[in-house]
Each structure stands twice: as structure tokens, then as C-alpha cells.
Amino acid sequence: MIKIFYGDDRVRAKQEIVKLLGENYEVIDGPEITPGDLPSIFLGASLFSAERKILIRDFTLNKPVYEELDKYLNTPHDIILFEAKLDKRTITYKNLKDKIEFKEFKIPENQDFRFIFNIYQTAKTDSKKALKMLDQIKQNEDPIKFTGLLVSQALKDFSTNQNKREKQILKELAKIDMQMKTTKVDPWLLVESFLVRISTLR
Predict the structure, then answer these.
(1) pLDDT digits (tens, 9 = 90+) for 120-175
(2) Rounded to whole angstroms, what are the CA distances from 178 to 24, 28, 38, 144, 147?
(3) Backbone angles phi, psi at 83, to 5 degrees
(4) Do residues 44 and 79 lie in contact, with contact meaning Cβ atoms separated by under 8 Å?
(5) CA distance 192 to 197
């Protein structure tokens, strides 16, 4: 089974991922994969089971491996590709859309989300002000959903300006995402530490 989930509502997407894969699954960063890794990921067995459960993040951003996906649709494993953003104009998407399930998880637009995006942009130049803005909404927001919106905005900025700083910001957000899944640290502390660091990235 291969499914592709995409969109900025990371909370609903994660709920669906856990529903399909359970609590224990492998997590792989798509941009780190090479074409040579694909057979072991999609066809290789683990030491403990012939059938694996795998989540791959940002797989479609890695064009060389995304273009090879069609060769592995017969995988014996349960694999979900989770994308913050999906380009439906690509030939690869058009070839796959009738072969596997694509499911969008989108957060409705409203004033609160625009305010969150403003926090992100403010943090790039003034972390203290951004933290004060965060305090205004923190009680009514989910930190995982908030981080998903930060990722969405960071990807948007990176798509228009692919410089070193924007790339570093995406890497920092990827670290936070992993820490939220693997540590017991207060998620809001992770978000706040990111907002403090972002203005120092160059």
C-alpha cells in the first residue's frame, strides 16, 4: 500500500497516519533518499518483519526519487508519503493520480492563521516581538498544528527564494518536528526556541 497525504493540517494528517500505520512506524526524510535506496525502502524486509510500516516526509520534493515511485507500487509494505505541499502540474503526479490514493488535509483560511504567519515573518527579524505575539494565541492553539503552519510558510518562502537561510530554516523545522515525535519536551518550548533562533540564521 502506498498513499500520499498532503496539506497544512498536520494534526488531522497525523491522526490518519496513526490510524493506518499504528503508533510504531519508521520515519524517513525524503530529501535524504537516493534512487539507490528505493529498493531497500520499498521492497526490503526488516529484521523483525517482512511487512514494514513507513512514513516518508517530503518525498515529492526529491525529484529523482519521486520520478521512480511508479516502479514500486507493488510494495508489500504499508507506506505513507506526507507532503506539506504537492505540485499537481508534474508528469509524475499525472501518471500516479489514478494508481494510488492522494488525500489532502487542509486547514481552513481565517484571521488566526494569518496572525500565525505574521509571527513567523516577525521572528525572522525580531524574536522578542514574535514571542510576545505567540503568548497572545498559545492558549488556544495546538503546538503541532502551529508548527505545521510554520512549515507551510517556510516552504512558501523557500519556493520563491531558495537561499541558504531559507534552507536552514526548513532544516530547523524538520528537527523540531522530529523532537515533537520522539521526546517529552514541552512542544511549545521547542517552538519558542525555534522562534528565538530563526533571527540568527544567515
Answers:
(1) 999 999 999 999 999 888 877 888 888 888 888 888 888 888 888 888 898 899 88
(2) 14, 11, 22, 11, 11
(3) -120, 135
(4) no
(5) 9
Separation between Cα atoms, residue 17 and residue 118, nearest integer Å: 29
Residues across the chain: 202
Helix then strand then coil, in percent of the chain rounded to 5, is 55, 10, 30
Mean pLDDT of the chain: 89
Nearby residues of 99 by Cβ (< 8 Å), 6 or more positions away: 70, 73
**What is the grid cell recorded at 58?**
517530503
- Cα separation of 148 and 170, whole Å? 12
Distance of alpha carbon 120 from alpha carbon 100, whole angstroms: 34
Contacts of residue 175, Cβ cutoff 8 Å, sequence gap at least 6: none
- What's the grid cell of residue 166? 531559507
Q: What is the pLDDT of residue 78?
A: 95
